[in-house]
């Protein structure tokens, strides 16, 4: 039986990418059937991944880009000094 650490640390990404072997998938899902904390973590992880994905697709308005570029250049220049 998988431990929570093995499930979360080693297999979560593969599970979500649907790349686990049939045997590991079966064991993973058996663990989820009895471990509510891992189910809660999985749901939170999936929501976070979805939010990040949606945020990456958002377009920054041109006026924001024009304000952000000089600010970032100034910050980079400060770090090198």
Word description of this protein:
The protein is mainly α. It has one domain (4-80). Helix content is 83%, strand content 0%. It contains four helices and no strands. The chain has helices spanning 4-16, 22-34, 36-57, 62-80. Helix 1 packs parallel to helix 3. The longest helix has 22 residues, at 36-57. It is elongated and about 55 Å long. The termini are far apart. The mean pLDDT is 87.
Question: Can I get a quick summary?
Answer:
This protein has 81 residues and is mainly alpha-helical. The chain contains four helices and no strands.
Name the features.
4 helices; single chain; elongated; mainly alpha; 81 residues
Largest sheet report? none
Helix content: over 70%
**Element string (H = helix, E = strand):** HHHH
Gyration radius, rounded? 20 Å
Shape: elongated
How many separate domains make up the residues?
Answer: 1
Write the layout of secondary structure elements.
Elements: H1 4-16, H2 22-34, H3 36-57, H4 62-80
Helix pairs in contact: 1-3
